[in-house]
Amino acid sequence: AIHNPVALTSEAIFLEGNYASTTTVNFPGGPSLRATAAGASRVQSVVPAEATAGSLTVSSGGTTSRALPFRRITFAPGVHASRLGYDQTAYPRQATRLVTPRDGAASALVGNFFYVMGGDNGGALNTIERALVNADGTLGAFNAVAGQSLAAARWLPSSVALPESVYLLGGFNERALNTVERAVVNADGTLGSFGLVTGVTLGTARFHHASAVVGNAVYVFGSATAMGVATDTVERALIRGDGTLGPFTPAGRLAAARYGASALVLGNDVYLVGGAARAGSYLNTVERAPINSDGTLGAFAVVAGVTVANGRAGHTSVVVGGSVLLVGGENASGAVGTIERAAVGAGGTLGSFAVVPGATLATPRTNHVSQVVGNYVFSVGGDGAGLLATVERASFNGSGAIGPFSTALDVSLTGGRSGAGTVVVGDRLYVLGGERSGAYLRTIERATVSPDGALGAFAQLPETLTTARAGTLAAVIGNYVYVVGGYDGSRYLTSVERAPINADGSLGAFAVVPSVLAVPNSYMTSAIAGDFLYLFGGDGRFHTRVEGRDF
Fold first, then answer.
1. Which among 494, 544, 499 has a CA at the least distance from the CA of 521?
2. How many CB atoms lie within 10 A of CB 62?
């Protein structure tokens, strides 16, 4: 595990695992630095200015670990209000949503996929959904993962994502569960099938608990053991060299019994934030335990002077470049939409939380899941005014500033073209059709987008559009890329074609669909709002007409 995987230059990050006496941290972008031991199973490194975004590995004892994602940011993080839709400035994109509304699910960011697992919808669920993570910081459509399900339906479990495996711990299904299940991470970044881990169970059946990787162990903190009944127990299981877990054993107690809290590993301490002591009793306290040199935890104690502004449970917390953000949750009034922020000081000390003015969820929600993707915090599902399928996204680039523009060296299209359509799907940028020296094109070319935003070489694909066209509109709607209208050199077009988006972000074959424009048109602008694709203006027989197409 990496704490914190999104960090500023010169910030200290901690890496949890099994290490030899000499350990090197290999940052994305090229730099490798000797790590400093922070304990028997923890090392520390300072983020160099040369680090970029991508895969971080650790070399120790003659072996190199599997990669985990890391990103160096160059801006002081803030947080903006959450939005249900995407910006439409580059090309129209449909906001994504879960297939099944659910609360109390678990989540994991694995490879290029955002997984949502289990939860509740009138009963505990065993279904799994996933969305492709696009290079522009958007999510593709959520889809049920065909042929896969959890070994046991479970509501409010916790999840731990290791490089080799994803674990789900406990949960509720008519009663609190003590079982543990595991799915292996495949070489292509997808998850294998979940199965119960033989011989490994929690010492106490629990749900609505928090968990974290500390050193070479998975820790579980607090929980509900029955509806509205909190526990203060802590247990842990050692992570073996092959990524499997040993048995769970008692590992101390919290200062106060709580469920629905969030756990944070900051510097050499573990923090538990908020939660509920019992039904209707919401906590604003924060407690902390030091991480000992052998990877065990010292005693938990309430941190004097550090509180949550509004006591809450069922929230999520994320750490981004020196800040902790608490998102949503519930209090005595029901689901809340506010976001609170606390600064992380030198050595990982945590300041008090304060509500961020103007930064609220579009829909108050509790028991949702959150993940950091690119410059954004995504909040998915949960319970608000009923069970939610919606997905919100808030930017944490507080300044919103961009650097100077420059030509991408050594990157060019395979041939000049104008009036092409462009879309980003997964980690690929597609260029569709266009015109070259009076010739209208059906060809498609594609370049890979690196995690740090750099483009790879463009290559022409064997697939083509069904109709040569320039001035076309390209849009991503659900699981398809649509190409709409345009000009073929002799006439303005009304035709629409589309290609399915495969699970890995590649495109299938384009085919004409029955939908047609009301009038021939090209070079129009567009936006997706709600369930409609809108087209504005353009070059054709009409220049002032606005069309709306229901999808």
1. 494
2. 7
Alpha-carbon span 345 to 339, nearest angstrom: 20
Sheet containing 12-16: give its strands across: 2-3, 12-16, 42-46, 36-39
**Paired tokens of 108:** 């994991």
DSSP states of 63-120? EEPPPEEEEEE-S-------BSS---SSS-BPPPB-SS--BS-EEEEETTEEEEE--B
Whether 542 shows a pLDDT value over 80: the answer reads no
Phi, psi of 469 (to 5 degrees): -160, 145
CA separation for the pair 400, 518 (Å, rounded): 38
Q: Who has greater pLDDT, 504 or 401?
A: 504
Pairing outcome for strands 68-73 and 6-8 = parallel
Looking at residue 70, its amino acid is F
DSSP letter string, 328-362: --EETTEE--EEEEEEB-GGG-B---EEEEEEE-S
- The burial class, CB within 10 Å (0-12 / 13-18 / 19+), for 361 is buried
What is the tens place of the pLDDT at every residue in 227-285? 999 999 999 999 998 889 999 999 999 999 999 999 999 999 999 999 999 999 999 99
Structure tokens at 215: 């050193």
Closest CA to 186 of 156, 160, 164: 164
| The two three-digit tokens of residue 230, written as one number | 């909190």
pLDDT per residue as tens digits for the range 287-303? 999 999 998 999 999 99
Query: In this prediction, what percent of the chain has a pLDDT beyond 70?
Result: 98
Q: How many CB atoms lie within 10 A of CB 478?
A: 15
Task: Give CA–CA dist 468/472, Å, rounded.
Answer: 10
Query: How many residues in total does the chain contain?
Result: 551
Contact by Cβ (8 Å): 162, 137: no
Give yes or no for a contact between 289 and 274, defined as CB atoms under 8 angstroms apart.
Answer: no
